[in-house]
Amino acid sequence: MTRASLDKQPSEVAAMFDAVAAKYDLTNDVLALGQNRRWRKAVADAVGARPGQRVLDLAAGTGTSSLPFADAGAYTVPCDFSQGMLAEGRRRVPWMPFTAGDATRLPFAAGVFDAVTISFGLRNVQDVDAALGEMLRVTRPGGRLVICEFSHPTWAPLRTVYSEYLMRALPPVARKVSSSPDAYVYLAESIRSWPDQPGLARDLQRAGWTSVAWRNLSGGIVTLHRGVKPAPADRPAADEAA
């Protein structure tokens, strides 16, 4: 199985990422025209990891996205449900605590992380609401969530060009550089079907995150969404009664 369907069955998605693990980072560099490094820096700045903090990096893949948090002195847990990605990550960065886990059923206690982040992975989760709820559960009160995900360009001409690139240019390029090009056809389709910026913000608020905001990168091709876990006293009265 090298391509998942848009109903995002976990076994299909995991198998797809297993198949692309070896060349995943290289392929991303090529397909994103190098912009992914700029996006990773924006995520690192938004997370603001500090020494002594605990950071959970979901959909961490080979751990490339986790390194900036560890370099900042935070205890960083890269978590992914693709065993192929985890194996490649352990081979490259053996000192990091790579952990297998499903975003909808995280294997961590409540309130243990100062920050939770996920880059280009929430789109591949079968139940986004459940995942956002789990992220809230494992974050301490006052802790923060940072989501980096493909989104919808805000300028109409760019949106048209980008859509054409996804469906026409991306698959041929992927065939040249990826170990499993069919997987990138799924990725292009999943990007096109993903909610826009206000839609994802509403999902965060519905899950219980507060101070929800977003920042567009590269004209909205990618968006950073942020939220804060409220302290018990900050929750609405209806939540307290429940």
TrEMBL record:
- PANTHER family the UniProt entry points to: 2-METHOXY-6-POLYPRENYL-1,4-BENZOQUINOL METHYLASE, MITOCHONDRIAL, METHYLTRANSFERASE
| Name of the featured protein | Demethylmenaquinone methyltransferase
Instruction: Give the residue spans that cross the bilayer.
Output: none
Q: Does Methyltransferase count among this protein's keywords?
A: yes
Q: Which family does it belong to?
A: Belongs to the class I-like SAM-binding methyltransferase superfamily. MenG/UbiE family.
Q: Which organism is it from?
A: Streptomyces spiramenti
Describe the function of this protein: Methyltransferase required for the conversion of demethylmenaquinol (DMKH2) to menaquinol (MKH2).
- Provide the alphabetized UniProt keywords: Menaquinone biosynthesis, Methyltransferase, S-adenosyl-L-methionine, Transferase
What are the GO MF terms of this UniProt record?
demethylmenaquinone methyltransferase activity
Which Pfam families does the UniProt record give?
Ubie_methyltran
| UniProt catalytic activity | a 2-demethylmenaquinol + S-adenosyl-L-methionine = a menaquinol + S-adenosyl-L-homocysteine + H(+)
Q: What is its EC number?
A: 2.1.1.163
Q: Which GO terms describe its biological process?
A: methylation
